[in-house]
Design brief:
Layout lengths: L12 H16 L1 H11 L9 E5 L5 H8 L5 E6 L2 H10 L6 E5 L12 E7 L8 H11 E18 L7 H13 L5 H11 L2 E12 L5 H16 L5 H16 L6 E11 L1
Parallel strand pairs: 1-2, 1-4, 2-3, 4-5
Antiparallel strand pairs: 5-7, 6-7
The chain binds S-adenosylmethionine.
Length: 267
């Protein structure tokens, strides 16, 4: 199976809803919010700044452009109608926050229009990421900010000892749901080749805390895919999901991955 996030609009509605549920859980995870705060709050925007998030999912990170980065208005662009509907539902009461269906590589938005463009866990899913970078350059005002944050996916793990079978679920989930594992190790070159000046480049460690709600969605999706592929018997998949829950209950669960953020400026 190729990365379903790369073409979410054409996936089965149930899969789109399952992914939307996982994105909702992740966006509200406190440790994930801290990561977004750590790179968005430092950005200096002009008064009444206009912002756009490309790949806006269920909309929480688009809202951060107002609450954390200080933009006046924020627009989310997202190809999946299920996501756009969900985002509109979450934020119907906020007039300066809106969502439209569109593709990061060809948004149809005007030239030189925005003070900030955000790509939060988008680029790892986009075949031809340079097209999205090029589009961001086009729609940014001169001097405008491009903020990119994505997972450094090879670091994702649930291993608490050698040969821990739960780790295989995480590895398989990543293998099946990410187009480019290495995007944040390639990003600085990609940006400078496309005319951007580089700003802050930061690493952010994410440790699943408490009930590990988001990491359990990773475990579950990995187990279910291995069952669908016929690698695991359904009972084995369920047993591994239960193992993860038992670890959470006994405080022995460990889930970790690194994220990396890069700020850049249109010259
Ligand atoms: C992992 S989700 C992240 C959503 C949101 N940024 C967040 O962090 O909560 C990636 C999103 O990017 C969207 N996406 C994938 N390819 C895209 C493209 N070419 N243009 C715009 N969005 C895209 C997917 O549909 C999905 O909603």
């Amino acid at each position: 199976m190729s990365d379903p996030y790369a073409d979410l609009a054409s996936q089965d509605k149930e899969l789109q809803k399952r992914i939307a549920d996982a994105i909702d859980i992740r966006s509200q995870d406190l440790a994930q919010k801290e990561i977004r705060q750590a790179y968005l709050a430092d950005i200096k925007l002009p008064p009444n700044a206009s912002a756009v998030e490309l790949g806006s999912g269920t909309g929480y990170v688009t809202q951060d452009l107002i609450s954390m980065a200080g933009a006046k208005t924020a627009l989310g662009v997202e190809p999946s109608p299920v996501m756009v509907e969900r985002a509109n539902l979450h934020f119907a009461d906020i007039p300066n926050l809106s969502f439209v269906i569109g593709d990061a590589r060809q948004t149809g938005l005007p030239d030189d229009a925005f003070d900030i463009v955000l790509m939060h866990t988008l680029l790892c899913h986009v075949p031809g990421p340079e097209k999205a970078i090029h589009e961001a350059y086009r729609i940014l005002k001169p001097g405008g900010v491009l903020a990119i944050c994505d997972g450094d996916y090879s670091t994702a793990t649930a291993r608490i000892a050698d040969f821990d079978p739960l780790d295989q679920l995480v590895r398989f989930m990543i293998n099946q749901n990410v187009t480019n594992l290495w995007i944040m190790r390639q990003i600085s070159g990609l940006l400078t080749r496309n005319g951007f000046a580089l700003g802050a480049f930061k690493g952010h460690g994410y440790v699943a805390e408490g009930q590990a709600e988001y990491f359990l969605t990773v475990i579950d999706r990995g187990a279910d895919r291995l069952v669908e592929e016929g690698v695991l018997q359904p009972d084995t998949g369920e047993a591994l999901k239960q193992e993860a829950r038992d670890r959470v209950a006994q405080n022995t669960f460990f889930g970790y991955m690194s994220y990396v953020s890069q700020i850049a400026y249109k010259q």
